[in-house]
């Protein structure tokens, strides 16, 4: 029976893990070198919790150093350097978060601004006129589980660190399930996304490789890459209201490569089902 857990790092994923553990009656300490009152994510995304909720309602202790013994240690990361971004959000200048083009795209799309012309290729207006800021993720290593460390993508095999907060939240759910003896996916898929007021873009996998095919489903478009029935990379563009469907299929795909075959609803076959079967099954028909 798990009674006491140490989470090292304060961000959206570790906050959600702390919430799940406390709801299960587990004592939780969060070790952080950044015990300020952040949004626990980067604007424009809504915060999961405030620090007051974490400390006063959930009774989670924020500590600078661990104290005593723990049944489980979970490594996350401290997210620092948000102050400059909060200031620039009040202006009409595109922002480039150094090394994180997808987040930069989200900030621009949210404010209906052109996207910085950097390391992400999205079908939107781009600009070379932008301000640069740095957001740092200070990872902790050596624990029983990791939320913000290095993962290996199950499709392409590359090593990567999850940058989008939602992937870290999904990883937190995986860690919670494993800690509590529940079933959880054993593999990771790299997830990137940018979301604005009326646009949603997402990519899964390391890089576009293999044969490519595109399909239109209503006002959404899907590009899927792969070979011989196995997906390697997926790119999606649509509206923000498509996001729950996309992330539902993404989470299923973390369990099985055949996830897209289950993309059905009362409206019939979904876009991922059509793209997967029509494109990747060509090799199997030869």
Could you please describe the fold and organization of this structure?
The chain is α/β, with parallel strands linked by helices. It folds into 3 domains: 4-78 and 135-179, FAD/NAD(P)-binding domain, CATH 3.50.50; 83-133, no CATH class; 208-285, no CATH class. It is built from 8 helices and 20 strands. It has helices spanning 12-23, 51-57, 83-88, 101-110, 165-179, 243-253, 271-280, 282-285; strands at residues 4-8, 27-31, 61-63, 72-75, 77-80, 95-97, 115-116, 126-127, 131-133, 136-139, 145-146, 151-152, 159-160, 191-195, 200-204, 211-217, 220-227, 230-238, 264-265, 268-269. The strands form 7 sheets. The chain has a 5-stranded parallel β-sheet with strand order 3-2-1-4-11, covered by helices on one side. A 5-stranded antiparallel β-sheet has the order 14-15-18-17-16. A hairpin with a 6-residue loop joins strand 12 and strand 13. Helix 1 (12-23) runs parallel beside helix 5. The chain starts with a strand and ends with a helix.
Strand and helix map with partners:
Elements: E1 4-8, H1 12-23, E2 27-31, H2 51-57, E3 61-63, E4 72-75, E5 77-80, H3 83-88, E6 95-97, H4 101-110, E7 115-116, E8 126-127, E9 131-133, E10 136-139, E11 145-146, E12 151-152, E13 159-160, H5 165-179, E14 191-195, E15 200-204, E16 211-217, E17 220-227, E18 230-238, H6 243-253, E19 264-265, E20 268-269, H7 271-280, H8 282-285
Parallel strand pairs: 1-2, 1-4, 2-3, 4-11, 6-9, 7-8
Antiparallel strand pairs: 5-10, 12-13, 14-15, 15-18, 16-17, 17-18, 19-20
Helix pairs in contact: 1-5
């Amino acid at each position: 029976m798990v009674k006491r857990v140490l989470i090292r790092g304060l961000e959206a994923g570790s906050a959600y893990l702390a919430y799940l553990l406390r709801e299960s009656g587990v004592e939780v300490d969060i070790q952080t070198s950044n015990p300020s009152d952040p949004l626990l994510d980067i604007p424009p995304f809504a915060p999961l919790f405030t620090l007051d909720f974490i400390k006063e309602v959930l009774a989670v202790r924020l500590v600078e150093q661990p104290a005593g013994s723990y049944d489980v240690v979970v490594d996350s990361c401290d997210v620092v350097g948000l102050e400059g971004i909060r200031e620039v959000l009040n202006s009409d200048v595109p922002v480039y978060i150094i090394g994180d083009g997808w987040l930069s795209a989200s900030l621009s799309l949210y404010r209906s601004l052109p996207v910085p012309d950097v390391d992400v290729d999205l079908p939107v207006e781009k600009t070379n006129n932008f301000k640069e800021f740095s957001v740092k993720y200070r990872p902790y290593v050596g624990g029983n589980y990791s939320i913000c460390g290095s993962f290996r993508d199950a499709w392409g095999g590359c090593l990567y660190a999850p940058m989008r907060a939602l992937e870290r939240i999904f990883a937190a759910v995986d860690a919670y399930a494993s800690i509590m003896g529940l079933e959880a996916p054993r593999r990771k898929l790299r997830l990137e996304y940018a979301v604005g007021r009326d646009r949603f873009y997402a990519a899964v996998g390391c890089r576009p490789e293999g044969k490519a095919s595109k399909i239109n489903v209503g006002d959404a478009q899907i590009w899927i890459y792969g070979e011989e029935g196995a997906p390697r990379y997926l790119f999606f563009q649509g509206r923000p209201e498509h996001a729950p469907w996309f992330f539902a299929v993404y989470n299923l795909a973390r369990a099985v490569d055949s996830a897209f075959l289950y993309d059905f609803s009362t409206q019939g076959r979904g876009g991922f089902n059509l793209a997967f079967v029509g494109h990747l099954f060509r090799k199997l028909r030869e």
